[in-house]
Each structure stands twice: as structure tokens, then as C-alpha cells.
Design goal:
Length: 437
């Protein structure tokens, strides 16, 4: 089988994805709060012909995070709209919650970005893990995992109906007759479901891509089922090549069972990268980052990403057993923590947390550009990936190294584009455009 073209997504994060990044870079610590920081990263990624840049969203910040990490969680659409103005080809993916938004309003914001960027928008569909979000939105309780995914299906259905509320050719612009758009080409959603009621059309015509590209990153069975039904781009956090290949095969089988073409479901595992001119240099950079990592941050972060409030726990005693003996309806990150606690019930939480991966569950690649290119090609050849979500351990430095030294190797091997061939994100990803007549 000939491997296809690779696709790359650059994960944007303040100073880099490693928790110690902000302590090793020389930049002004407040630089991450200004547009130039984001514009710089977007331009570097576009210079490297990457498919997309990606902004996460966290709509409730546990306070421990302010001690340990730069806090820059702006509204992704606001940042991406600004970046649309300083780039012309790269895709712009923003995260949006199906639990704490209204579908019509979210459809409008992402379609706005799609218009303003000339067809480069993508929506990372998340259900929001942290229960702290409920209190920020005036909700009494955070819906449980299964409930959030049930709502997510309906939410995505309504969003796409809103995106389809104007036919592609609705605008006629007939000055003579005084007809701007053909009212007969409007398709109001008139949706009345279990969770949402959405009646009317979006307040502007259909966007260049029809639908912004649908992205998903859930790893639990419910998360994979949602991805199989809707996602065109999937971010995963697999622990090994074998796990990644199994994940991708399972996702493709489920997509096919849902009547979709698996070729239109691209999987880009998350990979943190630290590069050096020699392997020893890269190892030294990674060692320095690890040396600065805080055990205090680690246990709190493991709880937070598992959807628990760290303020309610003592790190010097084991995780309370009633948590991990309960039902299995929990997120994939909680399941990892509970499995580790179940296997060593007497170990203090602090020590158990130390063994678990943090962040998005990504692996950390440390080595030379040649070694990284070899790794990427091996994963693609094994059917484990269609490309990667590249998380520079420090930014923009590791992204610059990736663009200047890894991309040319992949281009020489014929596995990565030498120019953008499409004008929309869908075209660059080889995805079809859903049409509406
Ligand atoms: C690369 C990557 C990026 C993610 N970005 C976000 C994000 O921005 N906001 C968020 O709430 N969750 C984010 N997640 C978490 C997932 O969307 C999902 O909520 C999580 O994996 C738990 O769902 P699950 O139990 O189905 O796995 C991300 C995960 C990965 C692997």
C-alpha cells in the first residue's frame, strides 16, 4: 500500500506544551498574552505548509494552575479571527464545548470564522471534562460522562442543520429586481429535540466550506463513537504504535459501520517534540524541562484532567477507594487514574500521579529531525497515523525546528506537500464539501 500525504496540526500553547516551558524560554513572561505571540506561531506553521493550527479551550480553570502555568485561555474564535488576518492558507481549528454553548450560537461563531478566513475553519468538538465549568455557567450540576456524549450527538446535528440553513446558491444579488437572496433557498432548522430547540436560519449565507471541518479528541468508547459518526479529523493520545494502529482501525471500522468513508476520517495522534542537532543535545533540553517539573503540579493536574477538583484531595494518602470502585461511566483520563489506583491501593496519590502521563496523554519525542522523520513515517506506514498533532515542548522554538528541519526531509521523500494546493482547509485535507441545494 502506498502511504498518502501526511497532515500536520500545530498545537498552540503558551510558551510550549511542556509544563516547564515558560521557565526555560527567554521571552517576556507576559508575551503570551499578546497577538504577536500567536501571529508568530501561525506564520511559522504556515511557512512549513502545515495543515492547521489548533487552539484548545478550557472554560474553568482550577486555581492551582495559575501557580504553575501561564494562563492564556482566551476565547479561541477571537484569537483565530485575528490570525485569519495574518495568514492566508493554514487551517484554523478552535475548540468549542457541546455542554456549555447553545448550538445556534456556536454554529454562527464558527461559520463567521469560516467566512472571514475564506474557508479555513475547524471545530474541535469537546464535551468538557471539568465539573468546575458548571459553576461558571450558572448550572447546578455538571452532566455525567454518558449524558454529555448523548447531548453532544444532538448538539452536532443541530449545528450542522444551522450551517445548512442557506443553500449554497441562495445569494442571487439581482440589483435589477431588488433580490439579494432567494427566500426559497432558505432551510430553517425547525429542530425540536431532547435537549435543544432551534428554529431559524443563521443570519448570513452558507460559509465557504459549508461545514467547518469537524474535529474530535475523545478517547473513551463514547468519545470514539462520536468521532466515528461525525469527525473528519481526530486527535488521539495513544501510548504506543500498536495502540495507535488499533485505535485507528477501530475508529475506521465504526465510521464505515455508520455509512461513512474511512478515508475521510484522518487520525493525527498528539506528539510532544523536543529536537536537537544531535540526540545528546535534544536529551539535554528534555532533561532540563523534566528537572524543573513540579511534583505538586503533577498530582493536581492528574486529578483536574480526570475531571476532579484537586482542592478536595490530600496527595499524601491514597485516592479514596469509593472513587475507583464506582461505575465505569467516567472519562478515559479518569479511568487511567482509577486503574492505577486500583492496582496499588496503598500508594499515596502523589506517587500514583507521578506514573501517569499528563496533558492530552501525548508521548514525548526527543531526538534529531532525522529520527523524528523516521518515527513519523514508521507510524504512517504501520497504519497508526495520517500525520501528527505536533506539540512543541517549547514554542515557537520546537515548531521552528520542525518546520525548518523535519518538513524538508518528509518533502524529499514525497510524503508532504511542497505547496498548498487547495484554497480551503477541506481541500488541503482531501475532504469532501457537504453541499446544500
Ligand atoms: C490533542 C487533544 C486536545 C484536546 N483538547 C481539549 C480541549 O481543548 N478542551 C477540552 O475540554 N478537552 C480537550 N481534550 C480532551 C478530549 O476532548 C476529551 O474530552 C477527553 O479525552 C475526555 O473524553 P473521553 O472520556 O471521551 O476520552 C483534548 C484531547 C486531546 C487528545
Amino acid at each position: 500500500m502506498t502511504a498518502g500525504q501526511l497532515h500536520f496540526n500545530a498545537f498552540v500553547w503558551p510558551n510550549g506544551y511542556h509544563e516547564s516551558a515558560w521557565r526555560v524560554v527567554d521571552d517576556d513572561v507576559r508575551g503570551v498574552l499578546g497577538l504577536p505571540y500567536y501571529a508568530d506561531i501561525a506564520r511559522i506553521a504556515e511557512r512549513g505548509l502545515l495543515d492547521t493550527i489548533f487552539l484548545a479551550d478550557n472554560i474553568a480553570i482550577a486555581e492551582y494552575r495559575a501557580t504553575h502555568l501561564p494562563q492564556t485561555q482566551f476565547d479561541p474564535i477571537s484569537v483565530l479571527s485575528a490570525l485569519a488576518a495574518v495568514t492566508s492558507h493554514i487551517g484554523l481549528i478552535g475548540t468549542g464545548s457541546t455542554t456549555y454553548n447553545k448550538p445556534w450560537e456556536l454554529a454562527r461563531r464558527w461559520a463567521t470564522l469560516d467566512h472571514l478566513s475564506g474557508g479555513r475553519a475547524g471545530w474541535n468538538i469537546v464535551t468538557t471534562i471539568t465539573p468546575l465549568a458548571a459553576a461558571n455557567f450558572g448550572e447546578r450540576a455538571h452532566p455525567d460522562h454518558a449524558d454529555r456524549y448523548t447531548r453532544a450527538h444532538e448538539f452536532v446535528d443541530v449545528v450542522t442543520k444551522a450551517w445548512d440553513s442557506w443553500a449554497d446558491d441562495a445569494v442571487v444579488g439581482d440589483r435589477e429586481r431588488g433580490v439579494w437572496a432567494d427566500r426559497g433557498k432558505l432551510h430553517p432548522p425547525r429542530f425540536h429535540g431532547q435537549f435543544h430547540d432551534v428554529e431559524g436560519i443563521l443570519p448570513f449565507p452558507r460559509s465557504p466550506q459549508g461545514w467547518p471541518v469537524l474535529v474530535q479528541a475523545g478517547q473513551s468508547p463514547a468519545g470514539v463513537a462520536l468521532a466515528a459518526r461525525y469527525a473528519e479529523l481526530v486527535f488521539s493520545g495513544p501510548p504506543s504504535l500498536e495502540a495507535a494502529a488499533a485505535f485507528r482501525a477501530d475508529l475506521h471500522a465504526q465510521a464505515a459501520a455508520a455509512g461513512r468513508d474511512p478515508a475521510h476520517v484522518l487520525v493525527l495522534p498528539a506528539l510532544m517534540v523536543t529536537l536537537g542537532g544531535t540526540e545528546a543535545e535534544a536529551q539535554e533540553k528534555a532533561r532540563r524541562l523534566e528537572e524543573l517539573a513540579s511534583p505538586e503540579f503533577r498530582w493536581q493536574n492528574v486529578l483536574y484532567t480526570a475531571g476532579l477538583d484537586p482542592d478536595g484531595f490530600d496527595p499524601d494518602v491514597p485516592l479514596p477507594a469509593e472513587l475507583w470502585t464506582g461505575d465505569a461511566n467516567v472519562s478515559s483520563r479518569a479511568e487511567q487514574l482509577f486503574a492505577a489506583s486500583r492496582a496499588q491501593p496503598d500508594k499515596p496519590l502523589r506517587e500514583v500521579a507521578q506514573q501517569l502521563k499528563s496533558g492530552a496523554g501525548q508521548s514525548h519525542f526527543v531526538g534529531t529531525p532525522e529520527q523524528l522523520a523516521t518515527h513519523i513515517l514508521a507510524w504512517q506506514d504501520a497504519g497508526a497515523a495520517d500525520g501528527f498533532t505536533i506539540m512543541g515542548s517549547t514554542l515557537p522554538y520546537e515548531l521552528t525546528a520542525f518546520v525548518d528541519h523535519v518538513v524538508p526531509i518528509l518533502q524529499r521523500k514525497g510524503r508532504f506537500r511542497t505547496e498548498y494546493t487547495g484554497s480551503t482547509l477541506r481541500e488541503n485535507l482531501g475532504l469532501r464539501r457537504p453541499g446544500v441545494g
